[in-house]
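Hi F.,

I've been meaning to write this up properly since the lab meeting, where we talked about keeping a consistent format for the predictions we share between groups. The idea is simple: the sequence comes first, exactly as it goes in, then the structure tokens exactly as they come out, then a line or two of notes. No screenshots and no reformatting. I'm using this chain as the first example so we have something concrete to point to.
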Amino acid sequence: MGARVLSEAGDLLDPIARRVGTPLYVYDADRIRSQHHALSAALAPLRHRLYYSVKANSSIAILGILRKLGAGVDVVSVGEMARAFRAGYRASDIIFSGVGKRPDELEQAVTQHIKLVNVESTAEFDLVRSVAERQECEVRIGIRVNPDVETATHPYTQTGEAGMKFGVPLDEVVRIAERAVPIPSVRLTSIGMHIGSQIFDPSHFGEGAAKLLELVLQLQDMGVDTLEAVDVGGGLGIRYTNETPLDLARYADAIRPLVEGSGLSLAVEPGRFLVGNAGLLLTRCLYRKRSGGKTFVVVDAGMNDLVRPSLYRAVHDVSVVRAGEPGEAGETQVDVVGPVCETGDFLAKDRYLPGATPGALLAVGSAGAYGFTMSSSYNSRPRAAEVLIDGAQWAVIRERESLDDLMRGERTLDQLDAAKAWNRVSGAEMRVS
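Output, unedited:
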């Protein structure tokens, strides 16, 4: 989170945690704004617009902050699209990406006349075309290219190499473009890529941008005159522990030839870069125990709240905001683990955390991206509350889930019987073994 909040942790975070409870996500609006300003300033010489990647953190309040800064949004579901509209975005602010868009989602995107639908396969292009023709309207599309760029990041977040599920292979892009051009209901306005997440080497972006430029020039030579933008996706690396963040000046220099060579405007889809370091997960220490020569600090947040350490072996900074009750908590390495019934339920391993005794308040840093959005109610644990700090004020922007929320939409057997809600199985007898 922002240095301002961390430096005032005892005076600011502990009272909020006591009032709202834990686990609790806390976000710093000023840090989000400063990240947006930094990236915008680096790209200022290029005609550009930032489209925030909603999957990183889909809080409606955070979407509102970025809307007021002039950002558009990149969504990957109609749920994210609905959140964007709720936050005040217009259809012309929305790019719809994602490798598995359902027919009903594409129907809604076309009906809403959003700015752009990024197609990721020939089959998806055919479906978008049929939807547009059925609705008798024009749909603006982009082609998301798989540029076959290898990046030094976690294998689960690599998206731009050949053999990945994402994007249209390089050798199929021209074929889709040729089919799109003569169709009145389809307007090809963008060529783009997204090569992965947590990328620190600007040369990877430069390599992908060079391949995009080659494609754009080829299409322009073929007479494609509808292109308006090149989209370089997101993936800008941030600091979690000791990483050196992506150099924004070098990043801008790497993609500059694409913009200047194509004559098109630039779209960038940052997510983690804008919100990752703007968030903390606050959790309260429940117990401290030893087993097999190890010391465990058991807290009330688990892998259902923050899955990144378990899923990606991600390493987050953890600090003691307020020490707990007196007891053994010296220079002993501890594992910070949660209450979920999985051995993989941990937030940190082998850390020195003096003061991490029962009652202590801990802060898991850099939790603003892919924290709450990837959380679940596994073990029937209600999802955490979310708080936004903005200057000298703070507010709850999402209430903690209740037990009723967990069971909303479910019916008991007695309710099914009373409502005569059972459907008769037709055809051959079915058995569940």
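Notes:
The chain has a mean pLDDT of 91.
The first strand starts at residue 24 and ends at 28.

If this format works for you, I'll send the rest the same way.

G.
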